[in-house]
């Protein structure tokens, strides 16, 4: 519990400790509770039927956990590779641990949803901005975690964090342009063939 407290009030110290100690079991617990809190918070703010709630808290929970753990693994692999190239000295397992612990702010979604739901319509308007604040908080913990795992300056940390995002953005842009180009060429072929086909009707 001391580490949880440090991550909330002294994140740099908490992340440093998490990267040096064997805290992976705690990291798994943080992820599970973060996903569960996020789902419960969403159900409280946007309630459906009891059947829908059961599906979300069973199948939805399983699917979300698989996705979150997979995304964390992928992010760890990408950022560890970039950090290695940039001269960082740290372990991928430590990075995976701090990335998992960075989801800790999502624990707050359920208690916040309980409070906001009592406010009525105003609570719904506040929920999304608070969710974005929690997301930003999580991203800041990601960045602090990278710095503490690899023992590097803030400048290098920023570069390690930004480079993959720029690369992913460029890759998605290229894929989108290729898709548009392929779609355009396909439509062109269809319109060329259409008058030819009409002669046989």
What does this structure look like?
The termini are far apart. By secondary structure, the protein is mostly helical. It has eight helices and no strands. It has one domain (about 1-150). α2 packs antiparallel against α5, α5 (about 90-100) runs antiparallel to α7 and α6 runs antiparallel to α7 (about 120-150).
Report the sheet-strand fraction: under 5%
Report Rg: 23 Å
Structural domain tally? 1
Order of helices and strands: HHHHHHHH
Question: Which consecutive residue ranges, at least 5 long each, have pLDDT under 50?
Answer: none
Number of helices: 8
Overall pLDDT, averaged?
Answer: 85
Q: What sort of overall outline do the alpha carbons produce when their principal axes are compared?
A: globular
Kindly report how far apart the N and C termini lie: 77 Å
Count of distinct strands: 0
* Main beta sheet strand tally, sense and closure: none
Q: Which structural class should the secondary elements be placed in?
A: mainly alpha
The helix content is over 70%
From the structure above, extract its key features.
201 residues; mainly alpha; globular
Question: Outline of this structure?
Answer:
With 201 residues, the chain is mostly helical. It has helices at residues 2-9, 11-20, 24-45, 50-85, 92-101, 109-117, 121-150, 154-198. The protein has eight helices and no strands.
Set out the fold topology.
Elements: H1 2-9, H2 11-20, H3 24-45, H4 50-85, H5 92-101, H6 109-117, H7 121-150, H8 154-198
Helix pairs in contact: 1-2, 2-5, 2-7, 3-4, 3-5, 3-6, 4-5, 4-8, 5-7, 6-7, 7-8
